[in-house]
UniProtKB/TrEMBL annotation:
Protein name as catalogued: 11078_t:CDS:1
Gene Ontology MF, one: glutathione specific gamma-glutamylcyclotransferase activity
Cell compartments where the protein resides: Nucleus
CDD domains linked: GGCT_like (cd06661), proteasome_alpha_type_4 (cd03752)
Family the UniProt entry places it in: Belongs to the peptidase T1A family.
PROSITE patterns named in the record: PROTEASOME_ALPHA_1, PROTEASOME_ALPHA_2, PROTEASOME_BETA_1
Pfam family, one: Proteasome_A_N
Domain Proteasome alpha-type subunits: 319-341
GO biological processes: glutathione catabolic process; ubiquitin-dependent protein catabolic process
Length: 566
């Protein structure tokens, strides 16, 4: 594994087109080389944890096994790092202790023999001419010596998300993160959770841009930072998207925490965006319309989606006032707002098996003082042959569930048979679509997963959204972190999966996507439908002790009364 070599004073590249030119060269041949710690402290074949406090919160690594919200101590998060098109690197061959070391180092370090080469940043929000700003961490001891507008107590913490990287893809993820976080230094930090005095994760990898970095900006008035972020953009998108996504994601994982610097910046960016000229808003719209950067493909739902960001920067244009008004880009903003409400709800997923269907859902525990419901809060029986899982506004779901039950009873009364699954789904989606077409109405802020059986097509699984769209699925997920859950389902699902295997897969996926380190019956609901020996559909809503037994069998259970996930 290569070592990070540093020596001497900073040097800078004068001309990007000619990387071999060094403006300052003050190294003497006898100068001592300081050999610092290796860039990584773990084997490339071992699993490890990486802690994200910036874009990693809402745009996770390319592969991960578990996601745990938490915080680190002793650091301050600030928008003091420039984000540009290139991060210049230097490759050197240096003889040390009779060994030749071939390594790549930052531009602020230099050696007797150097070869400059250009390295494209994987994730950048500006250019050299118009750099954006992204976050870095500053140690509290160093921060106290700086002139910062925002306050920070020594007891304050920095919230983020830790990802567990499995061993089979550890090297691939490390290479990706090293490119994405090019120019940042690796620190190994402990991660804590609310209500716990001991770290839940020790020695997590964290990328930090030090003050020696050539792109380090340092403190500035908040108005200047706001203006710089609002007017900067790079190949990964406008800089404002980065800042707003970070603010929104932090409110999701740690609603009780308050980051003065970030939230003040968010407020000023939104005010500036609402009052900005139409022409500049159109420039952002045009950029997003033509953007096809691959980093958009694995963005998590915790952050603002590309659609939602468009809504923010065009708020002053008032095309979102009614569901019956299309924007110039052909969008119905109220429908997209309804879809955004679903991303904050507890996760629900369904898996189609050869001998049945399982629906599993996450219950959001908002307070220990709230009495637990004796009935299901996320899974409902629509008819003797159809059940559903919901994510979104519960009161909206109750209205649609009652309508669906009425449709099913009318069909049973008229034809003396259970309603076909797709027919029930279609009728309900027709109603939902109607609420997007008429003035004075608003869309239903809820998504459904339907699981059912009929004599025409056997077991069927459908998913619908507030627009009235629906489709058949083999495995589907709705609610918070649905992108990560859908990715895991895609990896592990197989066409000949049995109901027992489907239940195990559902529990495994929820354990990795829920914002909690432990699972039990207080946080989960399980239900299945299958055929009995007589060919009748049997609906089984799992009792709490049955859920705990399933989790214990899979080694996923735990006593969560001690731990409240943020």
């Amino acid at each position: 594994m290569s070592e990070l070599l540093t020596v001497g004073n900073p040097v800078f590249v004068k001309d990007r087109a000619e990387f071999a030119h060094v403006e300052r060269y003050q190294l003497q041949t006898q100068q001592c080389v300081q050999l610092q710690q290796p860039r990584t402290q773990h084997s490339e074949s071992q699993e490890y944890w990486v802690f994200g406090y910036g874009s990693l919160i809402w745009k996770p690594p390319i592969a991960w096994e578990k996601r745990v919200p938490g915080y680190i101590k002793g650091y301050v998060r600030r928008f003091w790092q420039a984000s540009t098109l290139f991060n210049i690197r230097v490759q050197t061959l240096y003889s040390y202790s009779d060994q030749t070391i071939n390594t790549t180092i930052s531009i602020f370090d230099y050696f007797p023999t150097v070869r400059f080469h250009q390295q494209h940043s994987v994730d950048h929000r500006g250019t050299r001419e118009n750099p954006g700003r992204v976050v870095t961490l500053v140690s509290h001891s160093e921060w106290k010596l700086l002139n910062d507008y925002h306050e920070h107590s020594e007891d304050d913490v920095t919230w983020g998300v830790a990802y567990k990287i499995p061993s089979h893809c550890a090297k691939e993820v490390k290479d990706y993160l090293d490119r994405r976080e090019s120019g940042y230094t690796i620190k190994l930090l402990d991660v804590y959770q609310k209500g716990k005095t001991q770290p839940v994760i020790k020695q997590a990898v964290c990328y930090i841009a030090t003050t020696r970095n050539s792109d380090y900006c340092g403190p500035a008035p908040i108005e200047k930072i706001t203006h710089q972020i609002f007017h900067s953009r790079g190949a990964s998108g406008p800089n404002i998207e980065y800042a707003l996504n970070l603010a929104k994601s932090l409110k999701t994982i740690a609603p009780d925490a308050f980051d003065h610097h970030l939230y003040d910046l968010e407020r000023q960016l939104l005010e500036l965006g609402a009052s900005h000229s139409k022409s500049s808003s159109n420039q952002l719209l045009t950029y997003f319309k033509n953007s096809s950067h691959p980093s958009l493909a694995h963005r998590g739902d915790a952050g603002y989606s590309k659609k939602t960001f468009l809504l923010i920067v065009t708020m002053a244009r008032r095309y979102d006032a009614r569901t019956t008004i299309f924007s110039p880009e052909g969008r119905l903003y109220q429908v997209e707002y309804a879809m955004e409400a679903i991303s904050h709800a507890g996760t629900a997923l369904g898996i189609l098996a050869t001998d049945g269907i399982v629906i599993a859902a996450e219950k959001k525990v908002t307070s220990k003082l709230l009495e637990q419901s004796v009935t299901s809060e996320k899974i409902y029986l629509l008819n003797s042959n159809v059940i559903c899982g919901v994510a979104g506004i519960t009161s909206d779901a109750n209205i649609l569930i009652n309508v669906a039950r009425k449709y099913a009873q009318q069909y049973l009364y008229s034809f003396d048979d259970d309603i076909p699954v797709e027919q029930l789904v279609q009728r309900l989606c027709d109603l939902k679509q109607g609420y997007t077409q008429y003035g004075g109405l608003r869309p239903f802020g809820v998504s459904f997963i339907y699981a059912g059986y009929d004599n025409y097509f056997g077991f069927q699984l459908y998913r619908s959204d507030p627009s009235g769209n629906y489709g058949g699925w083999k495995a589907a997920c709705i609610g918070a972190n649905n992108a990560g859950a859908q990715s895991l389902l895609k990896q592990d699902y197989k066409d000949d999966i049995t109901l027992k295997e489907a239940k195990e897969l559902a529990a495994k996926v929820l354990s990795k996507t829920m914002d909690s380190t432990t699972l039990n019956s207080e946080k989960l609901e399980f239900a299945t439908i299958q055929l009995n020996d007589e060919g009748k559909v049997v609906y089984n809503l799992y009792k709490p002790d049955e859920i705990d037994a399933l989790l214990k069998e899979l080694n996923l259970g735990g006593n969560s009364t001690e731990e409240e996930a943020s």
